[in-house]
Design goal:
- With 360 residues, this protein is an alpha/beta fold.
- It folds into two domains: 110 residues, Aspartate Aminotransferase, domain 1; 223 residues, Type I PLP-dependent aspartate aminotransferase-like (Major domain) (Aspartate Aminotransferase, domain 2).
- The protein contains 13 helices and twelve strands.
- Strands 2-8-7-6-5-3-4 form a seven-stranded mixed beta sheet, with helices on both faces.
- α5 links the parallel β3 and β4.
- The radius of gyration is 20 Å and the shape is globular.
Length: 360
């Protein structure tokens, strides 16, 4: 007799993880929105020192990292939540906020983790289509909020389209959201956004909106995807208390904590890397448009590129892989006929463009 699993395991979609990690170092890894740069040497050294004491459990209060984040963002440490990547905090938010009879509202296509929250909890998911330009329709999202709504997710810049809304539009949207609804503004890519501008600007929204949570990560701009550190800046401390209550202790390793805390001390280097990424993004987008592709206006470290009017992106993904270039097909991300392409090094961009030319 087979093991009997919970019904929710049949509802939860399989996360569309990128393939190709076993192909070796000769592949252009443009599928997972990873930074092209590695962590700074002081960050590596901080993690190395932490590993020396790995026979002990990490600090369960995460005091050093939470205080470092609190000081950088002008908040009390009580309003800083941490997680093993921003996905960990999203899943914890779903567990803390959602249940059968509750509702969750988000745009689509957007971050592919969002459907997991409703599926795992039994809540009702309401996915609001993006505009034709791949932008959130905040008015349509607001119209879907009811007394049953517990959670609204706004990804800004949006993954997978890369599009972003100015904070003025976010602020107006928040005024239309009832106080009982938690709004998570997912800003995993905000440091790359020219539309948002100053990545600290959205902090002003927290003071007027206790139901708001700004979700961020060390995986992208800090180049620490392999260590899995995410954080949330909260309008009140109730969100942090709730998500910590539903998770296991010690969810962040000592090495991850130490590396993230050290990374915050090197903002000048981070800003230089961001500037280089944005320049490379604009150059690649221009090259793709010159070749006749529609490319969404990106505020992230990736591009959303139409490659097929028929919705068939799989053959292009497979053909690019044969040329040693890994990208993400839009079909797995809610946008058939598109590719999501990470902005890589100059060499990787050249390989991508050459491979696309060979397929034409």
């Amino acid at each position: 007799m087979a093991i009997e699993f919970a019904e929710k395991t049949r509802r939860i979609p399989v996360y569309p993880a990128a393939a190709g990690y076993s192909l070796g170092t000769g592949v252009a890894m443009l599928a997972s929105n990873e930074a092209t740069f590695g962590p700074l040497e002081p960050v590596v050294e901080a993690a190395r020192r932490a590993v020396i004491g790995a026979n002990r459990y990490p600090d369960p209060s995460y005091a050093e990292l939470r205080e470092a984040l609190a000081q950088r963002h002008g908040l009390s440490a009580a309003r800083v939540a941490l997680g093993a990547g921003s996905c960990d905090l999203l899943l914890a938010a779903g567990e803390a906020l959602l249940e059968p009879g509750a509702e969750l509202v988000y745009a689509w296509p957007s971050f592919s983790m969002y459907p997991h929250l409703a599926a795992a909890s039994g809540a009702r998911a309401i996915a609001v289509p993006l505009s034709a330009d791949g932008v959130h329709d905040l008015e349509a999202m607001a119209s879907e909020i009811t007394v049953a709504t517990r959670l609204v997710l706004v990804c800004n810049p949006n993954n997978p389209t890369g599009t972003a809304l100015p904070l003025g539009e976010i602020e107006a949207f928040l005024k239309a959201v009832p106080d009982h609804v938690c709004v998570i503004l997912d800003e995993a890519y905000v440091e790359f956004s020219l539309t948002v501008g100053d990545p600290l600007a959205s902090l002003e929204l927290l003071e007027a909106n206790p139901n708001l949570v700004l979700l961020r990560t060390f995986s992208k701009v800090y180049g620490l995807a392999g260590l899995r550190v995410g954080y949330a800046l909260c309008g009140s401390d109730s969100f942090r208390v709730a998500v910590d209550q539903v998770r296991q202790p010690f969810y962040l390793t000592a090495a991850a904590q130490a590396a993230a805390a050290e990374a915050l001390r090197h903002q000048d280097a981070v800003e230089q890397r961001v500037a280089a990424t944005v320049a490379a993004r604009e150059e690649l987008a221009a090259a793709l448009r010159e070749r006749g592709h529609w490319v969404a206006a990106s505020d992230a470290n990736f591009l959303w590129v139409r490659v097929s009017d028929s919705g068939e992106d799989g053959p292009v993904v497979a053909a690019l892989q044969e040329h040693g270039v890994l990208v993400r097909g839009g079909s797995a991300l809610g946008g058939p006929g598109f590719l999501r392409i990470t902005v890589g090094t100059a060499d990787e961009s050249a390989r991508l463009l050459a491979a696309l030319a060979a397929l034409a």
